[in-house]
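Appendix B. One record, verbatim.
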Amino acid sequence: MSTQKITTGNPVLRVPPATPAAATAYFGASLAFHADVSDVAAALGSGAEAGFVVLDSRSTASWDQGHVPGAVHLPTALIAEGAARLLDPAVPVVTYCWGPGCNGATRAALALAELGYQVKEMLGGFEYWVREGFAYETSEGPERRTADPLTAPAHDAACGC
């Protein structure tokens, strides 16, 4: 614990920050479980083999409305029966669902992990894929929206994070 005096009236520091060692363990683990939309898009668009497969765990109607190009469609409820047919157990899987308000990608990641797959969840889901201006596919064909300046840099391809 920090030796700094904590002011009880300060809501941020009411509970002291974790030790550097605990923070390292926590944030390192978080990165082992999560990937962000920009990193997934960069890996898929690099021209090199990404080394993972992207899995859309939503319904068919949602998939038809829009999905990440090249993603595998496997609704969460069908993972137990369909994963072996669609996924190579040696290739890590990155799951996504609608967005930050949906835990479908988390449930899909859990189901895959229970089957022995290495898995990460794509933070932000399909919502942030679209909001960050990346191309997506619909039942009508490819689409792309302008990046939302609250989620992606307005004049640069990289946010600098």
